[in-house]
Structures are given as structure tokens and as C-alpha cells.
């Protein structure tokens, strides 16, 4: 099989599939049924997160160290865990990032990257891939800012692929594959911009909701 490219990723996402690597690096394409999504416009920060946001414990940046976010996400969570984010996947998504279609939201303390997430933006759909944290709440803050940006820019779909406890706490629900494809096609027809300048505006307007 030829090496995974950014064009392969684009083709996959617009057709409802995405790649993951096996332990030996072999790539497989997935199209879960049901599919996990997070409703964008009903999201609000949890009561426990609001004090963290108000204290401004983290500096939030967008797209300043995309590859490093991916490499942190690729680190196994435990000695018994493995990663689906292979070097081949990192290279392809980094290429997609250089094309302006893959993005990262990052959290810093004293200039050190301590948390973040990355995903792909096509049309008004955002495909969340993975997140990491090195200190408590770092990834939750990154996710909050992602959601505020998606709301502000009128994104229609946030795909989180598989349901698990991590995404369920952010409001993820499962929908049939056929419904997902319908929502995907609709979101791809509408243009939306994934932009950073709204961050400070969003902080002032949503941290204390």
C-alpha cells in the first residue's frame, strides 16, 4: 500500500471514513455505526470548569505547534496501552495542517505546552481526532475553546468517531451512520472558517456563562 497522504485524508473524511494504525503500524480505515458526535450549539462549560476558565490558568494558542500536539497525543496512556497514531499518520496530518485543513488548540503554562487537541476542518464540519494533557484541566480548557470557536464560526458538525467516557463527558451522543452521512453532506456544503482571533472575545463572553 502507498504511503498515506493529505489527499487520502481529505477523500476519507468527505466519505465518512478515517484511518487508525494498528500496533505494528498497519493502517485501517473505519466508519463506525453508530457514530459519535458532539452537538455544538448546546455545549456549555461544566460548573467545575468555569472557575478554571475565570482564573485564566492557561494560555490558549491555536496552530502554533501542531505536530507536537500530535506527538503528545500519540504517547500511550499506560504501559498496557498502545497508540493508533503512527509516524505515518503524524506526517500525513502535518501535511494537511500545512494546507490549512488540520488544526490544533493548545494550552500552555509559563510557555510550556501542557495540553491540547487536534482535528480536521472541512466545510462546516470539524473532525476531532485526539487530545492530551500533562496537568489537570489542560485538555478540558482546550476543548472549551474549540467549542466556542465552532459556535462562533457557525460550524454544524463535530465528529468524535467512537463513543467513550472521555467524549461522553463533553456531551457526545451516538447517531446511526446514515444520519451521520446526511449531517456530513450538509456540513460539507457550507463554508466556515477555523480562526484564532475570536479567542479573547470568546473568553470574555463565555467563561462565566
Automatic annotation (TrEMBL):
GO terms for cellular component: cytoplasm. Pfam families: Leu_Phe_trans. It is an enzyme of class 2 (transferase). Gene3D superfamilies: Leucyl/phenylalanyl-tRNA-protein transferase, C-terminal domain (3.40.630.70). Its main location: cytoplasm. GO terms for biological process: protein catabolic process. Keywords: Acyltransferase, Cytoplasm, Transferase. Its EC number is 2.3.2.6. The keyword Transferase applies. It catalyses: L-phenylalanyl-tRNA(Phe) + an N-terminal L-alpha-aminoacyl-[protein] = an N-terminal L-phenylalanyl-L-alpha-aminoacyl-[protein] + tRNA(Phe); N-terminal L-arginyl-[protein] + L-leucyl-tRNA(Leu) = N-terminal L-leucyl-L-arginyl-[protein] + tRNA(Leu) + H(+); N-terminal L-lysyl-[protein] + L-leucyl-tRNA(Leu) = N-terminal L-leucyl-L-lysyl-[protein] + tRNA(Leu) + H(+). The keyword Cytoplasm applies. It comes from the Bacteria. SUPFAM superfamilies: Acyl-CoA N-acyltransferases (Nat). GO terms for molecular function: leucyl-tRNA--protein transferase activity. It is found in: Cytoplasm. InterPro entries: Acyl_CoA_acyltransferase, Leu/Phe-tRNA_Trfase, Leu/Phe-tRNA_Trfase_C. HAMAP family: Leu_Phe_trans. Belongs to the L/F-transferase family. Functions in the N-end rule pathway of protein degradation where it conjugates Leu, Phe and, less efficiently, Met from aminoacyl-tRNAs to the N-termini of proteins containing an N-terminal arginine or lysine. This is Leucyl/phenylalanyl-tRNA--protein transferase. It comes from Fibrisoma limi BUZ 3. The gene is aat.
Amino acid at each position: 500500500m502507498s504511503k498515506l497522504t493529505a489527499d487520502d485524508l481529505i477523500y476519507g473524511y468527505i466519505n465518512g471514513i478515517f484511518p487508525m494504525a494498528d500496533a505494528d503500524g498497519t493502517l485501517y480505515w473505519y466508519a463506525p455505526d453508530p457514530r459519535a458526535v458532539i452537538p455544538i450549539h448546546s455545549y456549555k462549560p461544566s460548573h467545575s470548569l468555569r472557575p478554571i476558565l475565570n482564573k485564566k490558568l492557561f494560555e490558549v494558542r491555536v496552530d502554533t505547534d501542531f505536530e507536537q500536539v500530535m506527538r503528545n497525543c500519540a504517547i500511550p496512556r499506560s504501559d498496557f496501552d498502545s497508540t493508533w497514531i503512527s509516524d505515518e499518520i503524524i506526517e500525513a496530518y502535518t501535511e494537511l495542517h500545512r494546507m490549512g485543513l488540520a488544526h490544533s488548540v493548545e494550552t500552555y503554562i509559563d510557555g510550556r505546552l501542557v495540553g491540547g487537541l487536534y482535528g480536521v476542518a472541512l466545510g462546516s464540519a470539524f473532525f476531532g481526532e485526539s487530545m492530551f494533557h500533562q496537568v489537570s484541566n489542560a485538555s478540558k480548557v482546550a476543548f472549551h475553546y474549540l467549542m466556542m470557536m465552532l459556535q462562533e464560526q457557525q460550524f454544524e458538525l463535530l465528529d468524535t468517531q467512537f463513543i467513550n467516557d472521555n467524549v461522553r463527558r463533553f456531551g457526545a451522543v451516538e447517531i446511526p451512520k446514515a444520519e451521520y452521512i446526511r449531517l456530513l453532506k450538509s456540513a460539507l456544503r457550507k463554508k466556515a472558517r477555523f480562526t484564532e482571533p475570536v479567542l479573547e472575545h470568546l473568553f470574555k463572553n463565555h467563561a462565566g456563562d
